UniProtKB/TrEMBL annotation:
GO MF assignments: methyltransferase activity
Bias (Basic residues) ranges: 1-13
Residue span of region Disordered: 1-21
SUPFAM superfamilies the record matches: S-adenosyl-L-methionine-dependent methyltransferases
GO biological process: methylation
Keywords: Methyltransferase, Transferase
Identification of the protein by name: Methyltransferase domain-containing protein
Domain Methyltransferase: 58-100
Superkingdom per UniProt: Bacteria
């Protein structure tokens, strides 16, 4: 890991000790607590795809930009798109502020990094880059309907990529290999009544989630892999805030109330608390590499 990335991780670990308040609290909890849990997935995928100075990457659902930052540190030109304006603002702060600290030129950083709020349709017409890598790191297999949303995003993004470009899709591994699955079932149970009315609750990952999305988007599978991504938190408060920042408990909050969700989430996390008070859950994530037609 580069020195710049080490600094970012240390900052996140320290910042996570104090709860975020006010506007953008959940987005900052995501950036400072939860997003880094997927770093092993980002790094394994980039290593396999040989991401470097020749890479022109379009990141769908880029969140607060950590995956883009890692790609940029390998020399890639990166563009990110996310529907959450608070996360996009944090990504812009993180990526564009990184160049001066690393001794880079701010203008060159702005040219190498572009961020958009909304979906990939915002990129078309404003950014003439022909991408040779499209990534969707937000893991599938969590919320009912998430695969349909990704398939639609890919359909808009594929025309922006060169013919035969690589597309990276990520998803949760088998529930029996993911300790966090048992905790996420809290969301499923609490949203049972809402789901009958069309709510989007949590669901277990299915074996062919990624392949199904690739097929619907007209992509040709070209490899896959699995990566261990343990979720580790400094304490129970950080664990609750981190998991709530994923959005997977939003339907549960609507179906009940925030206090009830936090209470039951805390109870579900108790088996994963270590003697020193840290919370640890082992997980396995999948990734699928496909190619554009």
């Amino acid at each position: 890991m580069t020195p710049t990335l080490v600094r970012h991780h240390r900052h996140h670990a320290n910042a996570a000790t104090a709860p975020a308040t006010g506007a953008g609290a959940r987005a900052r909890d995501w950036a400072e607590i939860q997003e880094r849990m997927l770093v092993p997935l980002y790094e394994a995928a980039y290593e396999r795809l040989e991401v470097g100075s020749s890479t022109r990457l379009l990141g769908l659902g880029c969140g607060s930009g950590l995956a883009l930052l890692i790609a940029a540190s390998r020399g890639a030109r990166v563009t990110g798109v996310d529907a959450d304006p608070e996360r996009v603002a944090l990504a812009r702060e993180r990526l564009l502020a990184d160049a001066p600290r690393a001794g880079g030129d701010p203008e060159e950083a702005r040219e190498a990094v572009r961020l958009y709020e909304g979906d990939s349709a915002r990129v078309c017409g404003d950014d003439a880059r022909a991408y040779n890598l499209v990534t969707a790191f937000e893991p599938l297999g969590c919320a009912a309907g998430d695969s349909e949303g990704l398939a639609a995003a890919l359909e808009s993004a594929i025309p922006l990529a060169e013919r035969g470009s690589e597309v990276l899709l990520a998803g949760w591994g088998p529930p029996e290999r993911c300790a966090t699955s048992a905790v996420l079932r809290v969301a499923s149970r609490l949203t049972e009544t809402l789901r009958s009315g069309g709510g989007r609750g949590w669901r277990p990952a299915l074996r062919d989630d990624l392949e199904d999305v690739a097929s619907r988007a007209g992509l040709k599978p070209d490899g896959s892999g699995r990566v261990a991504c343990p979720f580790g938190y400094a304490d129970m408060d950080s664990a609750v805030r981190g998991l709530l920042s994923t959005g997977l408990f939003d339907a549960a909050v609507r179906a009940t109330d925030p206090g009830q969700v936090e209470k039951e989430l805390t109870e579900a996390l108790h088996p994963h608390v270590r003697r020193d008070g840290t919370v640890w859950m082992s997980n396995v994530f999948r990734y699928l590499i496909a190619r554009t037609p």
